[in-house]
Amino acid sequence: MVSVERILQLLVYLSAIVGLLPVLVFLDGWVLVILVLAFIAGISGERQGRYLLGDRLATGLSIAFFSFFLMQVSLSNLVEPLIQMLCLLLAVRLATEKSPRHVLQLFLLSTIVLAASSMLTLDIAYLFYLVLIVLLLTIGLVLLSFYATEPRLRFNRRQWIMLLKVTVLLPVGSLLLMLVFFVILPRTQLPLWNFLNPKPVASIGMADQVRPGSFAELAESGQIAFRAETGRLPDHDIYWRGIVLNRLEGQVWKRVPELAEEKLLVDPAAETRVTIYASPKADRYLVTLDTPRSVAGIKHDLAADGVVTGRWRDAQKIRYQVRVQYTARSRQLGPIDEYLQLPEKISQRLQAVADQLVQEENFREKIALLETFFRRQQLSYANTRLPQTDDPVDTFLFASKRGYCEYFASSFALLLRLAGVPSRLVGGYLSGEYNHLGGYYLVGENAAHVWVEALDDEGLWQRIDPSRLAVNADQALFQQNRQALDSIRAFNDALLHYWSRVVLNYDLQQQFGTLRQVASRVRDLRKIDLRFLPSLLWSSAIFSVFATLFLYRNKSTRAVRLLRAYRKQVAKCCGLETLPEKLGLFELARLTNEPLCHEFSMIYGGAIYRDRDLSVAECRQLRAIISRLRQQRIAIRVALSDALEDNGSSGC
What we know:
Layout: E1 2-3, H1 4-20, H2 29-48, H3 55-72, H4 79-94, H5 100-117, H6 125-149, E2 154-155, H7 157-184, E3 209-210, H8 214-219, E4 224-229, E5 239-245, E6 247-249, E7 252-254, E8 262-264, E9 271-278, E10 285-286, E11 288-289, E12 292-296, E13 300-302, E14 308-310, E15 318-325, E16 330-332, H9 348-358, H10 363-376, E17 380-381, H11 392-400, E18 402-403, H12 405-418, E19 423-430, E20 433-435, E21 440-444, E22 448-455, E23 461-464, H13 473-482, H14 487-504, H15 508-523, H16 533-574, H17 585-592, H18 595-608, H19 616-629, H20 633-646
């Protein structure tokens, strides 16, 4: 026999642990010490029967902690002090006696702490904690109702199993309702309590200018830049366009407003759609697969040179859809003089190389000759220990011969301009790791890249990646990005991505999209769409749970309905409206002295009074007895009336 009190105490501590787990890493050390001491004091007090804190001392400590919280709080620092205060209040209650009222407070505080943790972190582990605490609290509240009535109540193993079978159904129903409400309740564009958190600070992003070495610094951050949902693309076509740099001032490439109109030559066969989930960044350039045709899902400006600029106030996670032409080219419609602009100082060695290029007749031959020059220089691709000089391009080509992508691109574009070929730099990202489970590219800041666009003899901009001319390009530049994620990493990242996509980023726009999809499926039920299979499975699961609940309820009330029908039939035989409530099943059989009533009481009592359900065969027997009682009406009436009169009862 296990007491309800002991199990209830265990549930209290487990609920407190589950509520605290998400916030432990955010708590100060002294708060963690107080929590550990509170757990020890609470468990020790229950074993010894004496608690460290009485009600008055606990109230005083709670007021002191709340006052300390008021001194720590500010508009810029509200969430963490609030959570620390809640944890301290929970610690105070853990160290006191576990009366029914205090147990209820502990359950409430544990739930509030877990809910407050969502203002600090909402990783996928939160879902596990939420399901667990709903399960613990539901069982705990049921046991609390028993404990409040009889503190010394004990159950044997069989009784515990029966109780848990019924109790576990309650949190299952609650979780299903939570799922339904999550889908259908109107969403806001921003989280309800977003104003309590400080604005996110983005530490990385593309600038309006690039100098040799700047993209190497960006790639060293190691952060995730974005995820892009699309089918797998040819490796040589995976260039993610971010910014176009069209003016060279000294050693720095800058972006100025688009210099002339361009027209994208559309190729329907090369068009694809990409959905991008971007991390918070310090810039407002929206990365797209090269080259974008249109953007949807966010306010933006699309320049003629394919640069997309978003409109938002603060750094935040964003999602948008892009229609791209990943093999298309754009035609220059306006003047090209600005793309030939040069810095004031040019080294003699650079000028000598340019003089050789000028001798070629057309742009194509000049570009080919320059590529040959780069190969002959035996340049290496590297992003560490790069020399810092006043003329990094000259040093890179003729001295160190080591550099990152912007060294290759800057020197290549500068030599093209010296040779009379209009050129510009494009900053973005190269390739990415494809997640075959999630169907998206994972692109990190280590994939930041710069390449060149140059005009050909037909006036079309063509992509040239000088970094591919490095002697170690395949090993240093492309090998990692061409590899798909391994199975474990792919599963883990896909899980995190879908948690963010389906839960964290679920907004009003997605709600309307879901409703439109459901309406479309309803109008076209004759067609089988495998994409609708997950929704169908979810609906079937929900229906199955509710059907199980209904059948269980029907099973438990079937015996009650049979007993009610039996008593009603006996009352009719006696000529009464109803039988007296105090008249029990076996007493009724004794008074009637009718074999059918004795048979009913033995079958019914043999099941119900032994804590088991009526079987189908027993239910069938009981219904047959009730039907046969109609034929024994007079005999029962006389016997029952005489017995009731002998006991001083009236009405028969």
